[in-house]
Amino acid sequence: MPSSASLKRPSPSSSLSLLVCAFLALLVAGCSSAPRVAPAPSGTPEAQVERTARPTHWGHLPGWNRDQPMAAWSAFRESCSRLERKPLWRNVCADAVQVDPLNASDIQHFFESRFVPYQVTNDDGSATGLITGYYEPILRGSRVRGGPYQTPLYRYPRYWKRHTHVGPTRAELMRSGDLDGTELVWVDDPVEAAYLQIQGSGRIEMTDGSTMRVAYAGTNNQPFESFAKRLIERGEITPAQATLAGVRDWARRHPGQVESMLNVNPRMVFFRELTGSEALADTSGPVGALGVPLTSERSIAVDPDEIPLGAPVFLSTTQPLSDRPLQRLMVAQDTGSAVKGAVRADFYWGHGDAAGEAASRMKQRGEMWVLMPKP
Questions:
Q1: What is the pLDDT of residues 348-359, one digit of tens each?
Q2: How far is Cα 91 from Cα 219, in angstroms, rounded to an integer?
Q3: N or C, which end of the chain has less CB nearby within 10 Å?
Q4: The CATH number of 135-278 is which of 3.40.30.10, 3.30.300.90, 1.10.8.60, 2.40.240.50?
């Protein structure tokens, strides 16, 4: 402890100077235009956002005031069941419990007062990227082969090493018979089965009236090739017909060419049946990579190295094959093997044929803002 002799009482003029400096410092801090956010642990996707994205203000989000964030509220609350374990998100998720889920203005005020929007940019500094779509197919099937149910969905082969085994191509597997005995379910449409492999999960309406939920279980680790693109290149269909309905119509007119068309894609996707709590209710969406059910038109798949899973994301893009704005608050709840990069998202449209049509047509440009918690 310093002696009393070493302590000097400031003069009135120096005290005044200190007060003025303190006041000016507070004034400058209060006038700063840079929003503050809670610090994120280094090496996390949250820290990646803070390093590479640009903090901005709500007025810079096109269409923010025209959206109804109430529609995204239930999706965000689902995310909180996972995010609340992280210190960065714990308080904001705890406070979300107090918000009236039916009060749109309260929900909008909650986001505006508790979050800072960060505009996501690519490595080259650009702010736009590709926005595609996906959906949950609904197929018809049976646990036993018979009648129209002739197309199998397969379980992952037990003797393969998951994620590291590069297996034979689809064509080779179908010729070899190596998958005999691994059939999970039989469906009535090979084209719908192929689209189910692209989506990775779906529902199957069974002959006994029940519904089976199936989810991705692995692949043969072969590259994906689009059979729809090959049909376009051969002049068999037009780009506008490169949808589930268009390819299915082509297959009905060319039944003898369906297998060779499907073999254009060497990748084979395997499935597992969801049971118990994983199967959820019929009204719930499939479970995404975050571990919560997806919400139609409010959930997106992102690159988890760039965007924190569970985070709210404001998306500004356009409707499929149009220039009509599609600007709304989404929640990052899923991932995809083709979803790589910062400004890149896959828009979950829901389930069924209508969702499938929208998803297959969606290849738009868009911008993204990640919402990060304030301190």
A1: 999 888 898 899
A2: 39
A3: N
A4: 2.40.240.50
